[in-house]
Amino acid sequence: MRTLFQRLISTFALAGAAMLLPVAAQAQSTPYVTLERPHQTDSGDKIEVLEFFSYTCGHCAALAPLLDTWTKNQPDDVAVVHVPIAFNAGMRPLQQLYYTLEAMGRTDLHLGVFRAIHEQRTRMFDEAGITKWATETAGLDPKVFADTYNSFGVHSRMQRANQLAESYAIDSTPQVVVDGRFLTSPALANGYAQTVTQTDALVKQIRATR
């Protein structure tokens, strides 16, 4: 019998993977797609890499450490921006968590959230569960965390993330957009490591044309 935790994970995962199969069908032909309409980026002169993800997405959990390692080896002309996605109201608390960690300067806990959910089976799908993990496991100050979690700044960042997802027509996770022009994913690149390799190739391609 499936546990409640497994049912919750499945529910969230289905929201992000509902349209993954149609995209996967393209994987054999091209490891990335060129967007019909290039988007203005928010990173100035830097080459912007947007990673659209969800903490409950198993594919995102697999890609995250690989992308993190790649990010740490990039020069200053690359800006990697993580964009948490909420396809429904139930996914918003974890979207809110990412921007809370960002606002507190604790994005070092980013991979830890994936581990807590997917390896340690921590139930942190609502504010109470998230707060328990953040304060008891991650050791964050309860008042500072609560104030930041419910702050205007965090909610503004969530709104911007939703706008980006809509603008790029993101319908599954993870997906990586490079320089507002190219999109790749494990489905398109046919693997997690391949996604990072393709992202790196696109960044180098863009750098060479500047």
UniProtKB/TrEMBL annotation:
Residues 1-27 form the signal peptide. Residues 9-208 form the Thioredoxin domain. It holds the Pfam family DSBA. Transmembrane segments: none annotated. SUPFAM superfamilies: Thioredoxin-like. It is found in: Periplasm. Disulfide bonds join C57-C60. Keywords: Disulfide bond, Periplasm, Redox-active center, Signal. InterPro entries: DSBA-like_thioredoxin_dom, DsbA/DsbL, Thiol_disulfide_DsbA, Thioredoxin-like_sf, Thioredoxin_CS, Thioredoxin_domain. PROSITE patterns: THIOREDOXIN_1, THIOREDOXIN_2. GO terms for cellular component: periplasmic space. GO terms for molecular function: disulfide oxidoreductase activity. Belongs to the thioredoxin family. DsbA subfamily. This is Thiol:disulfide interchange protein.
